[in-house]
Design brief:
Low-confidence stretches: 591-603
Largest sheet: 8 strands, antiparallel
Structural class: alpha+beta
Number of strands: 23
Strand order of the largest sheet: 19-18-15-16-17-20-22-21
Mean pLDDT: 89
Radius of gyration: 26 Å
Shape: elongated
Distance between the termini: 23 Å
Oligomer: single chain
Length: about 600
Amino acid sequence: MVREAVRVRVRAARPDEAAALGALALRSKAHWGYDEEFLAACAPELAIRAEEVGARRVVVAEASGSRPELLGVATLDGRPPVAELGLLFVEPSAIGRGVGRRLYRDAVRRARELGCRTLVIDADPHAAGFYRAMGARTPAGGAPVAELVRFEVRLGGAAPWVAAWTGDRPTVHLGNVAEYNAQFGDVSLDREQLAAHHYAALAAFYGPRPAALVLPRPVPAWWVEQVARQLDWPRVEVHDALAPDRRSLSAAVGARPALAARLTGSGAVLVPWGQSPDFARLAGGGPWRPEVLRYESKAASHALFTEIVRAGGHPDVLVPRQWRPRGRWAAARLVAARTRAGLATVLKSEHGVGGSGTRVLTPERVRAAGGALAALRGLPRGPLLAEEYAHDPDTAVRDLTYDAFVDAAGRVHPVGAAVMDVVGTGYRGATVGPGVVPEVAREALSAFGGAVGRELAAAGYRGWFDVDFVGAGQGRLAPTETNLRLTGPSAAFVVKARLDELRGGDHLVRIMDRVELGARLPEAMAGELCAALARGCADLGAVFVPAIPTAAFDPAPWLGVLVAAHTREAVDAAEEMVRARAAAVGALFGEAAQDPAEASVRGPRTA
């Protein structure tokens, strides 16, 4: 049975509460069925004396409301570099309602602020599952503790890029994905921008502690609540359903003066998916300069890559040759000539996203299609770019990306490198974290990505960007494009930074853009499924965060999700479990999934 979470605040305990807190700890211990003799033996260890309250850094969890009630207690013993979670107990009636989670995360935060590098926990065996779910790990080769299970939490500092990205200020996240795409008018993009409106839900992950989310379409309340729970958001306003007719989201906000004033006048930083003329007007940042986005063009970014490599200093980077055929016949002739020479060709549109409008034409595929012109069928109308196919059949890591951002002063801040999951030419997700990218590749990515960032800054660009690469053979990397906006991997980096802060350790995070569902799910059922997936991941020592919930009732239903853990094995196991249960959802619900009523435009909500 899943119990409803209770809202609590954590505060310092008072000396006059010491006896009540010791009694609470003893009741909590008794919850596990220990006999009276054992509990009597434990009583001295669980007691808290009034004079110890300050020295042991005792805090309490108190139910919010007009009649506060003590629901939990925790002590933080020790001193740098090692802190000890001496006690953490929850009133039996509140177990399973999020009180222990709040106390645990508070202890991790306070231990880090004290300058400790490690938090040690000697847990009751009945609580071992809770600490594993919280991210604590059993030390390898550690000496056993009598009748207890020892855990350790590594307490690193915040990711160095986070403060520079947010300025340590509240952030307002604007999910203007369709608005950003529309300014390029690329024919490879869906005219209705339905996928872009789904991807707007990634606004939840534009920064680690948002104050508000601004979204074009309605989003389910359960999604906001689940994300807030996993990422420990204290309070987030949600302004959704603002552009259901596919208008510009920034323009829709600007047409609501009270809302625009609330969002722009709060002192919070406005963070969009990407820059646009309408966003520039909303943010009041001066006249719009479209040239700052010129390297979003695959042709322009290719020219930039070529210049950087010619300047020297990047021996492990190879820029494939690129051509701009004048029409379909010219493209077909180029492909035919390269096919006769046994060479593969990549055809791509100027601004396609996520691999849309891109096709790899190997000689085998051209012949199977019946010739070069036939092989071009199905590609979007409009100008195409042709490029050498960089391929390394021996590499274990094919598709990589380097993420960074340019701050308001023009400084480039590296964020990290990721391995992308690409099927054919279609992006499906990415993994970030320790050991994901080989060291030699990471050095080349960082050096070249930093050089690209400096050129973007000199051109006037400010904001997040990435540079995508493929393995090109002989240990070299080939850059393929820049994205002057936030991306799926950027969401994974943000979630990693937040979980490292909340749970300790160094997380691996995998974002999966499309987890196929076995049935179309209305809001309530999608929420129930995601809650079950979160519990299943916790059992594996992993974290599940629903990332894109709004496609669950599409004709071909899917979810976007994030999974995270401290080991590759746990992340892989979590992905396998999530995909299997999502695919089997049809068998679980059968014909019970009925068409939901059309959602109406809603006012702000809070999580």
